[in-house]
Structure formats: structure tokens, C-alpha cells
Design brief:
By secondary structure, chain A is mainly alpha-helical. In chain A, 74% of the residues lie in helices and 0% in strands. Chain A has 24 helices and no strands. The radius of gyration of chain A is 25 Å and the shape is globular. Chain A starts with 10 loop residues before the first helix and ends in a 5-residue tail after the last helix. Chain B is of the alpha/beta class. In chain B, 40% of the residues lie in helices and 24% in strands. In chain B, 50% of the residues are buried. Classes of the chains: A mainly alpha (564), B alpha/beta (258). At the A-B interface, α16, α20 and α21 of A face α1, β6 and α3 of B.
Chain lengths: 564, 258
């Protein structure tokens, strides 16, 4: 890269220098992806999924397109006033107003998702500026803010690139108006830019709180949990979320696209077009102030550990620690104890534990109405899923800089992997089993049924973390290009979370299908037999996947090479 | 016959077209201190990674403590390794880190506690042992890294820049520790840029340049290699050797280009 940063203070110089910073960040991200082909593949997968969802159902291409309505369907419905393609597709929108509301809802959800992801990126990436020695000392903070935000816009845009192109084409074809493609692209770009800027500002605000408030720092899991739950909740309850968010100004970008095909509210479209640059300018000023508060502060001092006052050091884990001492070998115990300490001091590693729990609450509410007897199984499957979604989903990344010591310790592969498994399964299994027993006892009133549910949950609480170990070693998350530079316990990679969520679904499908069939009386086989067969199939599938995953995780540690 | 702690034959490591280490042949006797010198990018860290089984050689063979480096399980019980960036977990305290490694290596608890306590005292870390590592200075991390590498009393210890970031007092403690390790018949494979450390401690010095071993001998032997009668330091000798070989490489390249 040529040229000097920070040589001017005008808006053009700031934008030019910011673009340079964004370019470097983008290249760094690209190189990190290139290091791990699986990550590149997973990113491609997410890009394709986003495109499928946005394009949506296309009549005549059943089996090749997403089954729910998307850009094509809604554009057709809006352009024809609800009588054309909408009726042909025969699914959701029956009139123009409903289609317009759906598009606005879609935009509202997309806005919040992009903003939340950007916020997460901003909070997670707090260390890069410290590592980039000199940038803060040589470049105006406003320029760094522009560069950092631009890099995040590019990143978000890359994830949604195919969705934008495909969505624009579908919008134009569906409406029969080529101008629709232009309107769609303008709306999408405006939405991504504003949502990213909002998420960036929110992320910086969170950083300010983290770096300046000891309360927030010490209770970051508690403070951050509602936000993460909201994020996952948007996926799970998209219909209700769409209805709510579609009425907010963040959804006005939808009207830009809709106006280009003769629908929506032209006043809202104009407001979005005029408001976007104004909002971006305001958010930039706010981000600069927040960045100054977040970055120009001494790194927070971590609390000193008082070895005398806290000899065991595990608080609520004392009981588990004693059972650990009685049942595990010294090496396994060492790994498990170290992990408990590390995760307790950096609880953000447990971020994705909330995902299965949100699914559990949301799907549980729906399922309890349809098949009340399925609730204990759901608690067992998604509770056990949550058990595996913490540190076990990123063992290589969590070892990071410690890898040379781990790998040059004899027999460490098995010891480390076993330690990770025990660290999750022991506390998590006990908790989920107890919860399952309680739910089953309440739902069925049968002691045998409750005990069975407890055993089922306990078994899954071993199997699912084992599966997580396999997924995590396949899709590790390192916060640096070189694994050996990873500083500490790291939040699992989002692709690992996606793959693991799929695995939870696969494991849970047989038992939930069995319960559904039994409740519907869909077969001539006695209901109890169908239910038992479903549970057995789930245990079989989980056991097989767990065995394979565990072996893969051990093998990965055994053969891992540093610097290759 | 003298036991060899480290033996390599034509050890080579390539990354694509780039050669990191080329035809490296070493014979290092047990209980000796081997000073491994070379400019930045010479291939020292790659060599250490190969010898500690963390990286596979492209060709050639090597054994450490009599075990082939192809067999990680056979080699690792006999080695300790301190990479340039100490392999520590930021979230743990110094004491917890050492207890973790002692546990992972299955060192009996009472024995581990004694060793950890005495090493922490020796390195003036006892007072800071219960602070988290992410609050440590580079020197403190380095000290914990060294203790961790020798906690299980390995036969061979690989130290990559162990004095880097240490203040003069800590550097002196480190030098004394290395000397003491050698007295206990531990083989020390020491890479550093601080040549007086090598001059003081090493029995043999090897100079790596562009992946090739370009000189090897005792520190005195290397110092006296050039013009006789001239009083030279190891630093002078090192600069001469690497400069000569840099010139040779340049000449070869210009010859090929011409």
C-alpha cells in the first residue's frame, strides 16, 4: 500500500485514508479465510443460504428455490396488486398491502440482524487496534473510525452480495419492471450501510461500558445475554419480529425498492434516501466520540486473584471439583479445572450456549401446544445442545498460543479432548438431566418416565459436546492469522455454530418425530413403542456421531502441526 | 561412544518454493549447551519446531533423545520447549498455569508443588504468582514459560530467545538457570540473538544462514576462525560469517542473473 495516513483532516482525506484502512482489514480477513479452506467453504454456504432466502420461492423452479416467499413472489404480488403471481404461488400474500408489509418486515429483520452482527464484530475485534501499534498514534481517530466501519460494511456486503444480486434479479423479473433491480440494490446498499453504522456505534458503546465500568466487565455475560438472546430470537420468531420491525423507520429502505416497482409509500422511500446520508454522518460523529472513550483509555486492570481467600477457586463448581477428583485422572482433571477457570474469567466463550436455549424456549412454546408430551425430549435435546455450545465448540482456538506446550506434552491429545468433554458434560449434564426429570415429572406424572428422561438427557449431554468437539476442530476460530497468536478462550466460529446447530437438529429429529407420530396415532404400532424407537434412534445417531467426532478431535490434536 | 541428544541428517524444510532449512546435519552430545545463532529468518524457529515435532520436515531425518522426530509420542516425554511467544493462557495466574502443565504431564501433586514453589522463588515470581498472566510483563511471561518448559526435568530443552524481554537481573537468573540445567546433564538447545549469552554458556555454537549451517564449533574456535592474532568477539565472528555467506548468495544470484 502506498501513501501516508492522516495527512489531511477533511472529509475527502478521511474517506480516502479510511478506505486504505478498510482495504488492509479486508485483506487480513481474506488471508485468514484462505488459511482454512473449510471456513471459506462455510462462508460460501452462508452466502448461498442468504441468497436462497432473499430470492425465495419462484414458481416453476420448485425444488431448486427456497420454499417460502421472497423477492420474486413479493415483487410479483406488489406489481400485480395481489392478483398475479401471488395468487399463482398460493401461499402467503393475498393482497398488495400484505406483500408490502412482508417486505418491510423482511427489511426490518435484516437491518437488526446486520446491526447485531456488526456489534458483535466490533466488540470481538477490540484487540486489533492494540496489536496495530502506531495506528492510533499516527492517524486521526475519526479516520480510523471511518476505516473500521467501512471494513465492516464490506464484510457484511460480501456475505450478502449474492443475496443482493439474486434478489435484485428476482425483484425485477417478479415485478416485470427492470427498474426494480436498481431500486432493490439501492435499498439493500442503504440498509447495509445504515445497519452496519448503527451496529458499529452500538458495539463501540458496549466497548466503552466494558472498558470503563468494572461492573459491566465483571458481569459481561449477564449484560450481553439479552442482546444475544434477541439476536437468536429474530431467527426463531421471524414472523412476529417482522410484524413489529416492519413498522419502524429502519424498514423504510424497503419502500425504496417497492417504489421502484410502483408500490410502497414514496414518502417513506424519499425519507430513506435523504435520511441515509444524514444518519451516516450523525453516526460517524457519534462513533468518533465513542471510539475516543473506548480506545484512549488504559486497558482495564484484571482483578487480582486472592489465592488465600479462594483456595479452590471454583465457587459453585466446588462440588463438581470434588467429584472430578474422585473420578478423573490427574491430567484430565488439570485440563477440566483450567478450562473452568478460564471460561469463568472470560465468559464470552459461552455466547452461543444461548442459541439452543432460545430455540428451546421458542420451539418449546409452540410444541407444548401441539404435542405436550414432547417437552421433556425437547429439553433434553436442546439443553444438551447448549452444553456443547461453549468451549467444546472451539478447542483448537481456545488452546491457541498454548498449543506448543500442549502438543509437546506426551499423550496430551486424548487428555485435552477428554478434559474438554468432562468440563462441559459434568456440570451441564447434571443440570440438564435434573431439568429434564423435573419437566418430565410435571408433564407425565410418571416416575419411571421422569427417570428415563433424566437418563436420556444425561446421555445426550455427553454425546452432543463430543459432537461439538469434532465440529470445533474442523471449523476452529482463531482471532489471529496464526493460531499461535490466539490470546485466550475464544468465541466459537459462527460456521461451527451453524454446523453444530444442524447436528443438534439431526440428533433430535428421530425422538421428536417419534413423539409426533405417537401423538397423532399415525401408525398401527403402539404409541409407547414408537416413542421408545424414536428415543433409541436418537441415542444411536448421537452415539455414532459422538464417537466419530471425538476420534476426529483427538486425531486433530495428535497430528496438528504449528506453522504449516 | 558419546550419547547424542540431538542428531539430524540432511534435515530440510520447504514451504512451497521457499527453503526454510536446507540439509541441516547436527550431532549434539548429551548434557551440552548448543548455541544456535542466525539472523532473522535464518530458519532457527523452523528447526526448533521440527525437532520438537511441531512441524514435519520435507526430507531428512532427525532424532531427539534417541527417538525419531516422526514419533511425537516417543519424543515429547523427553523434551521441554519454550517458543519465542511463551505458550501460556492469559486467563490463568502464573501459579495456575504451572499447576495445569504439571497436571497435564501427570507430575505427582506434592512433587509438582515443591518444584513450582522453588522455581517461582528462584525467578522472583512468588509475589506475582497469583496475578493473572494477562497482567504480566513480557519478562514475567518469559520466566513462567521457562519454568513450564523444565518443570518435568526433560532430557533436552529447546529455548527460543529465552532472554528476550528480560531485565538485566532476570537475564542473569536465566543464564544461571541454563548453566544449572547443563550441570544436571540436561541438553540445552539455545537460540538467541544475545551473543554474550551464547559465548558464556555454549559448548558448541552453530550458525544458520538462509537455512544452511554455515559454521559450527566452540565459541573460541569461531572467534579465532578468521585472521589469527586479532582479538575478536563472538559478535564479530557472527557478523563476518553471516556477511560472507550473504555475499556468496548475492554473488551466486548475480552470476545466475548475468
Amino acid at each position: 500500500m502506498s501513501g501516508r495516513l492522516g495527512t489531511g483532516h477533511g472529509a475527502v482525506a478521511r474517506l480516502r485514508d479510511g478506505a486504505r484502512i478498510a482495504r488492509v482489514e479486508t485483506v487480513r480477513h481474506y488471508r485468514r479465510q484462505r488459511e482454512h479452506s473449510w471456513r471459506a467453504f462455510s462462508e460460501l454456504f452462508l452466502v448461498l443460504v442468504a441468497a436462497f432466502v432473499v430470492i425465495g420461492h419462484v414458481p416453476g423452479a420448485e425444488g431448486w428455490t427456497y420454499p417460502d416467499p421472497g423477492a420474486y413472489y413479493y415483487a410479483a404480488a406488489v406489481a400485480s396488486g395481489g392478483d398475479g403471481a401471488g395468487a399463482a404461488a398460493g401461499t402467503v400474500a393475498t393482497d398488495q398491502d400484505a406483500a408490502v408489509a412482508a417486505v418491510r418486515g423482511f427489511a426490518g429483520i435484516a437491518f437488526v440482524l446486520v446491526a447485531l452482527v456488526t456489534m458483535l464484530w466490533t466488540v470481538k475485534g477490540q484487540g486489533w487496534r492494540e496489536r496495530d501499534n502506531g495506528l492510533l498514534a499516527t492517524t486521526p481517530i475519526g479516520t480510523i473510525v471511518v476505516g473500521d466501519a467501512l471494513a465492516k460494511m464490506i464484510k457484511a456486503g460480501r456475505f450478502l452480495s449474492l443475496a443482493i444480486v439474486g434478489g435484485a434479479a428476482a425483484f425485477a423479473v417478479g415485478s416485470g419492471r427492470p427498474l426494480g433491480a436498481v431500486g432493490f440494490v439501492v435499498a439493500a446498499v442503504g440498509l447495509i450501510a445504515t445497519a452496519t453504522a448503527c451496529g458499529y456505534v452500538a458495539g463501540l458503546a458496549a466497548l466503552v461500558a466494558l472498558r470503563r465500568s468494572s461492573f459491566v466487565r465483571e458481569h459481561k455475560l449477564l449484560v450481553g445475554s439479552p442482546l444475544v438472546a434477541l439476536y437468536f430470537g429474530l431467527f426463531v420468531g421471524s414472523r412476529q419480529a417482522g410484524t413489529l420491525l416492519g413498522g419502524w423507520p429502519i424498514a423504510w429502505h424497503a419502500d425504496v425498492a417497492l417504489a421502484s416497482i410502483g408500490g410502497g409509500d414514496p414518502r417513506l422511500a424519499a425519507a430513506a434516501l435523504v435520511g441515509t446520508p444524514l444518519a451516516l454522518a450523525g453516526l460517524r460523529a457519534l462513533a468518533t466520540t465513542l471510539a475516543r472513550l473506548a480506545w484512549l483509555v488504559d486497558p482495564p486492570k484484571e482483578p487480582e486473584i486472592d489465592a488465600d481467600a479462594e483456595p479452590a477457586g471454583f465457587g459453585p463448581f466446588d462440588l463438581l471439583d470434588r467429584s472430578l477428583a474422585a473420578t478423573c485422572s490427574r491430567p484430565t482433571r488439570a485440563v477440566t479445572r483450567a478450562l473452568w477457570l478460564r471460561v469463568r474469567r472470560r465468559p464470552q466463550a459461552l455466547l452461543y450456549v444461548l442459541l439452543p436455549l432460545v430455540v428451546l424456549v421458542s420451539a418449546g412454546y409452540e410444541l407444548a401446544r401441539v404435542v405436550p408430551g414432547a417437552l421433556p425430549a425437547l429439553v433434553a435435546v436442546y439443553g444438551a445442545g447448549a452444553v456443547g455450545a461453549g468451549a467444546t465448540l472451539n478447542p483448537l482456538g481456545n488452546e491457541g498460543r498454548g498449543l506448543p506446550a500442549t502438543l509437546t506434552t506426551p499423550g496430551s491429545a486424548r487428555r485435552v479432548v477428554r478434559g474438554y468433554l468432562v468440563s462441559a458434560a459434568l456440570p451441564g449434564g447434571a443440570l440438564v438431566a435434573a431439568l429434564s426429570v423435573g419437566v418430565a415429572a410435571t408433564a407425565t406424572g410418571s416416575t419411571v418416565g421422569a427417570l428415563g428422561a433424566g437418563l436420556f438427557a444425561a446421555a445426550l449431554s455427553v454425546f452432543l459436546p463430543a459432537i461439538a468437539l469434532g465440529v470445533g476442530t474442523l471449523l476452529p476460530e482463531f482471532d489471529a492469522i496464526r493460531p499461535a497468536e490466539n490470546a485466550g478462550v475464544t468465541v466459537p466460529h459462527v460456521y461451527a455454530v451453524v454446523a453444530y446447530s444442524g447436528a443438534i437438529g439431526v440428533v433430535g429429529a428421530p425422538v421428536l418425530a417419534g413423539l409426533y407420530l405417537a401423538a397423532e396415532g399415525a401408525t398401527e404400532i403402539p404409541a409407547d413403542a414408537v416413542t421408545a424407537a424414536g428415543a433409541a434412534a436418537t441415542l444411536l445417531v448421537a452415539g455414532l456421531l459422538a464417537g466419530l467426532s471425538y476420534r476426529r478431535a483427538v486425531r486433530t490434536f495428535e497430528t496438528y502441526l504449528v506453522g504449516e | 561412544m558419546t550419547d547424542l541428544a540431538i542428531e539430524t541428517r540432511a534435515l530440510t524444510k520447504r514451504y512451497g518454493d521457499a527453503v526454510a532449512v536446507e540439509d541441516l546435519t547436527l550431532s549434539i552430545t548429551s548434557g551440552s549447551v548448543y548455541g544456535f545463532l542466525g539472523p532473522n529468518g535464518a530458519g532457527k524457529t523452523t528447526t526448533m519446531r521440527m525437532l520438537t515435532t511441531l512441524t514435519k520436515p520435507t526430507s531428512g531425518t532427525a532424532s531427539v533423545a534417541g527417538r525419531s522426530i516422526e514419533d511425537r509420542d516417543a519424543v515429547t516425554p523427553h523434551i521441554g520447549y519454550l517458543p519465542e511467544e511463551p505458550p501460556l493462557y492469559d486467563e490463568l495466574t502464573g501459579r495456575e498455569q504451572l499447576e495445569y502443565i504439571a497436571g497435564l504431564r501427570d507430575i505427582p501433586e506434592d512433587k509438582a508443588d515443591r518444584r513450582i514453589g522453588s522455581m517461582l522463588d528462584r525467578f522472583d515470581l512468588a509475589e506475582d504468582a497469583d496475578k493473572r498472566i494477562d497482567a504480566y510483563s513480557k519478562g514475567m511471561r518469559q520466566k513462567i514459560g521457562v519454568i513450564q518448559a523444565v518443570l518435568h526435568e526433560p532430557d533436552v530443552v529447546f529455548l527460543d530467545e529465552p532472554t528476550s524481554g528480560l531485565d538485566p537481573r532476570a537475564a542473569r537468573t536465566m543464564r544461571d538457570t541454563i548453566a544449572e540445567l547443563a550441570e544436571r546433564e540436561m541438553t540445552v538447545f539455545l537460540s538467541t540473538h544475545i551473543l554474550p549469552v551464547v559465548d558464556e554458556l555454549a559448548d558448541t555454537v552453530g550458525v544458520l544462514h538462509d537455512g544452511r549451517l554455515v559454521a559450527e564449533g566452540t565459541p573460541d574456535g569461531l572467534k579465532n576462525r578468521a585472521e589469527a592474532g586479532e582479538e575478536r568477539s563472538l559478535e564479530d565472528a557472527f557478523l563476518d560469517i553471516t556477511h560472507d555467506h550473504g555475499d556468496e548468495r548475492l554473488n551466486e544470484e548475480s552470476t545466475t542473473t548475468v
